[in-house]
């Protein structure tokens, strides 16, 4: 479900290999992301470009994983969100909680 | 602006694999009816989010085999009504004094209230806090009702004591 794309000294780039991110896969996704954070001990940059549907269960899983990351001095950064998905984050103000960038270049530029 | 008005009833399987196809079905119908609307993309985003959460909620909580959904479009509003025979949403809220707000959920960014609005009916209201840098540890992980409430111009829950049915009604404005 989460494919590692590239490991860099200060972050791990991974792609969420799902079109429909919902109740069906939210718990498994959270467990995979938490395992990545634990195993690599660095920030995870998640490419969400494939996701066209996301529900509240998946948002809850993302927030749960972010809490785990922050508690371990790490972070989860989101890139390549489709407009609807970005609008969903903005609707419930999760764009103030997650670092969201247009693409990897924008993330690396911002640091 | 040309809108195809009228009501259409959908009955979907209340099962996880049916969730996204059901949402697509409702979106296709709605898109065809309001394709010339000024705020088409914004309205379809709201419909998509609301229907997704209504179905997710049904999968999680109602325990029924099917979900009945009606999409009723007039010149001003889309009304989306979901009816099921599952467990009542929250009996305690239904006996709350008329017109009184009860805090349903909160975190550092939102308060979600239930306002009694007639017999066996509550209206959901979301209020934002002015916290611009919220602490992640003080944020909820449950967003379903909040998403629907913030997408809707009006979001009501009614418990029909005669039939034992739960009726969720969401109104989304077509005129901005």
TrEMBL record, chain A:
Residues 20-111 form the STAS domain. Pfam families: STAS. One of its GO terms (molecular function) is anti-sigma factor antagonist activity. Belongs to the anti-sigma-factor antagonist family. This is Anti-sigma factor antagonist.
TrEMBL record, chain B:
InterPro entries: HATPase_C_sf. This is Uncharacterized protein.
């Amino acid at each position: 479900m989460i494919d590692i794309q590239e490991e860099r000294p200060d972050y791990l780039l991974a792609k969420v290999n799902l079109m429909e991110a919902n109740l069906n896969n939210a718990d498994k996704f959270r467990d995979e992301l938490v395992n990545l954070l634990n195993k690599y001990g660095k920030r995870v940059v998640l490419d969400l470009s494939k996701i066209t549907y996301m529900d509240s269960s998946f948002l809850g899983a993302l927030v749960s994983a972010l809490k785990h990351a922050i508690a371990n001095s790490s972070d989860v950064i989101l890139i390549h969100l489709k407009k609807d998905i970005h609008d969903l984050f903005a609707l419930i103000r999760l764009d103030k909680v997650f670092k969201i960038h247009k693409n990897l270049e924008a993330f690396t530029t911002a640091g | 602006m040309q809108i195809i008005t009228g009501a259409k009833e959908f009955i979907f399987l209340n099962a996880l694999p049916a969730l996204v196809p059901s949402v697509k079905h409702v979106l296709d119908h709605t898109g065809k009816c309001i394709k010339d609307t000024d705020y088409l993309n914004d309205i379809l985003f709201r419909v998509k989010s609301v229907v997704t959460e209504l179905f997710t909620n049904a999968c999680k909580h109602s325990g029924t085999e099917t979900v009945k959904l009606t999409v009723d479009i007039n010149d001003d509003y889309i009304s989306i009504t979901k009816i099921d025979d599952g467990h009542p949403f929250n009996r305690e809220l239904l006996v709350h004094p008329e017109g009184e707000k009860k805090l349903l959920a909160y975190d550092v960014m939102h308060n979600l209230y239930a306002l009694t609005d007639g017999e066996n009916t509550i209206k959901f209201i979301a209020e934002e806090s002015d916290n611009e840098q919220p602490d992640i540890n003080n944020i909820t992980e449950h967003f379903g009702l909040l998403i629907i409430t913030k997408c809707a111009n009006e979001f009501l829950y009614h418990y029909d004591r005669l039939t034992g049915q739960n009726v969720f009604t969401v109104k989304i404005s077509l005129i901005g």
